[in-house]
């Protein structure tokens, strides 16, 4: 009985820690994403395959950005509860949203370093890289890649 | 060696096609990184160790692809695609492939 109580106490503690720290981490991440997205707005990234006539004469280069991001204990618990009733799993939706936007931002940051003008043919790839024993998704990896067309100095 | 995921290399003209080239690498995480990942699984957030691991592995895969292209006399790879798959628990395969071409 005592052991059972201890287990429950540990679970509750983990849920509490996950809630506090996870919320904070997500909030500050979204804040930084929004700020950086504004900063990189000038660099247009499109999923169009063929560059415009003008751009197709400029040098091009592959750029990538990737991120591995994990959901916290509390949200994983919520997601597990969701599977009982079904429906939208908001906690994973925000996780994937964060991961994708972060990956695109990192790609843009790399392109900026190369003095790129535009990025063409953006592809996004998502994979869950670690799964816990119970089969829950632990972390997702998102990779964004595309071809940056570089600015030529006249 | 120029690499692009478009069907062309901007600013260059393709004169010859050599066919598919590929590069892959299988990487495993190590215990220290796994420990950190376990902690992050409670608090949430980015797994920096894993991001670096996969980034490194992907660069290696691209490097191998370029080597293969070089060996058959190409000087660029176009239409590059990436793919990731987990082979077993704790190991992932990073795979890059594309078409080797010669540019003028």
From TrEMBL, chain A:
Alphabetized SUPFAM superfamilies for the sequence:
YbjQ-like
Q: Membrane spanning segments where? A: none
Source species, domain of life: Bacteria
Q: Which InterPro entries match?
A: UPF0145_dom_sf, UPF0145_YbjQ-like
Q: Which residues form a coiled coil?
A: none
Q: Which family does it belong to?
A: Belongs to the UPF0145 family.
Q: What is this protein called?
A: YbjQ family protein
Q: Which organism is it from?
A: Litorilituus sediminis
TrEMBL record, chain B:
Family that this chain belongs to: Belongs to the UPF0145 family.
Spell out the protein name for this chain. Answer: UPF0145 protein EMK97_08905
Entry-linked Gene3D superfamilies: Hypothetical protein apc22750. Chain B
Pfam families cross-referenced by the UniProt entry: YbjQ_1
> Which InterPro entries does the annotation name?
UPF0145_dom_sf, UPF0145_YbjQ-like
């Amino acid at each position: 009985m005592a052991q059972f109580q201890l287990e429950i106490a540990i679970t509750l503690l983990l849920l509490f820690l996950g809630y506090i720290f996870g919320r904070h981490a997500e909030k500050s991440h979204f804040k930084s994403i929004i700020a950086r997205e504004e900063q990189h707005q000038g660099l247009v990234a499109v999923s169009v395959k063929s560059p415009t006539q003008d751009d197709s004469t400029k040098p091009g280069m592959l750029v990538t950005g990737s991120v591995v991001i994990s959901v916290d204990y509390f949200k994983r618990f919520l997601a597990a509860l969701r599977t009982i009733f079904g429906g939208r799993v908001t906690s994973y939706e925000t996780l994937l949203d964060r991961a994708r936007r972060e990956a695109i931002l990192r790609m843009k940051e790399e392109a900026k370093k190369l003095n790129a003008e535009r990025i063409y043919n953006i592809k996004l790839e998502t994979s869950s890289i670690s799964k816990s024993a119970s089969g829950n998704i632990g972390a997702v990896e998102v990779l964004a890649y595309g071809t940056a067309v570089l600015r030529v100095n006249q | 060696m120029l690499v692009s995921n478009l069907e062309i290399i901007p600013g260059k003209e393709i004169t010859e096609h050599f066919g598919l080239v590929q590069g892959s690498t299988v990487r495993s995480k190590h215990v220290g990184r796994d420990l950190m990942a376990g902690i992050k699984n409670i608090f949430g957030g980015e797994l920096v160790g894993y991001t670096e691991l996969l980034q490194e592995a992907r660069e290696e895969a691209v490097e191998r692809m370029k080597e293969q292209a070089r060996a058959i006399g190409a000087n660029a790879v176009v239409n590059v695609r990436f793919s990731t798959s987990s082979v077993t628990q704790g190991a992932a395969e990073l795979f890059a492939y594309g078409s080797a071409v010669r540019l003028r």
